[in-house]
């Protein structure tokens, strides 16, 4: 049977390198994987109970397309209390199917075919296919020479180097996946000012905002309210990845348009999960603290072990990743390193190439794993390094 061609944009999209590698090494018996960005904690008991009660109380119908009013009010209070943002519950907060749908909605809302978007790199690879599907060209800004921090100077230089591009905005993610680097208030303020100078939108993915290990998170919404979509959710803060509750926040003029996109993508987020989200944001405001304390200990352990093995590592201030530069004397590129490590020592890490330009020569380690697994991972990595240095 002959079929007409599919969407041509799909030819430029593949399943993410992270997922491909994770699936391929899962076939190796005894493999220890530090690959995916998923908390190893379970959803807090009181949140699970709220979900159970929602089922029993027949919360099985649609909410309004923008989300449960109680959940939006809880989100307004939570983000105001935590990060001093001030989004109105009724028309500036949209409940989405996870942060991924929030990102897809934001990108679609601001984009026209032929636009370009500035993207700091290395960065989480999930943004790029969303741009591609919207016929938007990513323009990468390599931050590997600025300690993985996007600077106004780099934005200015990139704009100057692409005089004919129809640059619509900037995608930013902090605390960062894959580096764990985050931004101080002065740095956020400077980026906001540069975006305003060039009339750029900002899509700011702040999903790891509750997992910072030094200063509290600073939201871009506090400095560039009028031109920013802030993306957040409950996946990392409350270990609710499978519940799929995200938030898209912005000024009402942007959210009014975004809800059109959201409606036709998903109609509304799952009602039962939204009821659990109310519990998470009201009686679980500090649920992330226990997880954060454990992550901090794990970070310190793995960070020091990597330094002792000769890796150059940016010390992460947030999220649960380490982005480590492979010792040059090993003579291995990122993919060679991760594939050989998986084959020889049954340890799976992610190649830096999965995260765009600037990622070659690095590996990403997720320390969202038990301390026992991390200690075993360090032993296997030490054995691998020793063997290849002796070769």
From TrEMBL:
Q: What Pfam families does the record tag this protein with?
A: Aminotran_1_2
Entry's EC annotation:
2.6.1.-
Instruction: Identify the InterPro entries for this entry.
Output: Aminotransferase_I/II_large, AspAT/PAT-like, NHTrfase_class1_PyrdxlP-BS, PyrdxlP-dep_Trfase, PyrdxlP-dep_Trfase_major, PyrdxlP-dep_Trfase_small
Which Gene3D superfamilies does the UniProt entry name for this protein? Aspartate Aminotransferase, domain 1, Type I PLP-dependent aspartate aminotransferase-like (Major domain)
> Domain named Aminotransferase class I/classII large: which ranges?
31-381
Instruction: Read off the PROSITE patterns from this record.
Output: AA_TRANSFER_CLASS_1
Which cofactors does this protein require? Answer: pyridoxal 5'-phosphate
Q: What class of enzyme is it?
A: transferase
Q: Give the record's keywords alphabetically.
A: Aminotransferase, Pyridoxal phosphate, Transferase
GO molecular function ontology, one term from the record: pyridoxal phosphate binding
Q: Tell me which CDD domains the record gives.
A: AAT_like
Q: Which domain of life is it from?
A: Bacteria
Record GO biological process: amino acid metabolic process
Similarity annotation: Belongs to the class-I pyridoxal-phosphate-dependent aminotransferase family.
Which PANTHER family does UniProt cross-reference here?
Answer: AMINOTRANSFERASE, ASPARTATE AMINOTRANSFERASE
Identification of the protein by name: Aminotransferase
Organism in which the protein naturally occurs: Lacticaseibacillus paracasei NRIC 0644
């Amino acid at each position: 049977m002959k079929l007409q061609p599919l969407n041509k944009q799909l030819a430029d999209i593949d399943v993410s390198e992270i997922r491909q590698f994770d699936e391929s090494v899962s076939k190796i018996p005894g493999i220890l994987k530090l690959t995916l960005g998923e908390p190893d904690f379970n959803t807090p008991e009181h949140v699970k109970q709220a979900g159970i009660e929602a089922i029993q109380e027949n919360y099985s119908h649609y909410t309004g397309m923008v989300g449960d009013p109680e959940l939006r009010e809880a989100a307004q209070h939570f983000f105001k209390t935590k990060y001093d943002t001030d989004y109105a519950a009724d028309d500036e907060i949209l409940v989405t199917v996870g942060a991924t749908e929030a990102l897809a909605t934001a990108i679609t809302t601001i984009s026209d075919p032929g636009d370009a978007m500035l993207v700091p790199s290395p960065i989480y690879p999930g943004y790029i296919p969303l741009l591609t599907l919207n016929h938007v060209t990513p323009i990468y800004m390599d931050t590997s020479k600025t300690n993985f921090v996007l600077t106004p100077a780099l934005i200015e230089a990139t704009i100057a180097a692409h005089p004919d591009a129809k640059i619509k905005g900037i995608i930013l993610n902090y605390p960062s996946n894959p580096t764990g680097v985050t931004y101080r208030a002065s740095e956020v303020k400077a980026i906001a000012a540069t975006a305003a100078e060039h009339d750029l939108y900002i899509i700011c993915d702040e999903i790891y905002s509750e997992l910072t290990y030094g200063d509290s998170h600073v939201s871009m919404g506090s400095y560039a309210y009028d031109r920013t979509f802030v993306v957040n959710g409950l996946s990392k803060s409350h270990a609710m990845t499978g519940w799929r509750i995200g938030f898209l926040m912005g000024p009402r003029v942007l959210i009014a348009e975004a809800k059109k996109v959201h409606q036709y993508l998903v109609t509304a987020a799952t009602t039962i999960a939204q009821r659990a989200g109310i519990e998470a944001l009201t009686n679980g405001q500090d649920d992330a603290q226990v997880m954060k304390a454990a992550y901090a200990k794990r970070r310190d352990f793995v960070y020091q072990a990597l330094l002792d093995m000769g890796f150059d590592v940016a010390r992460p201030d947030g999220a649960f990743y380490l982005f480590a530069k492979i010792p040059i004397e090993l003579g291995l590129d990122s993919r060679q390193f991760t594939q050989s490590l998986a084959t020889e020592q049954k340890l799976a890490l992610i190649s830096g190439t999965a995260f765009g330009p600037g990622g070659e020569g690095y590996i990403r380690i997720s320390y969202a794993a038990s301390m026992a697994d991390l200690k075993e991972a360090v032993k296997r990595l030490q054995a691998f390094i020793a063997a290849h240095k002796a070769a």
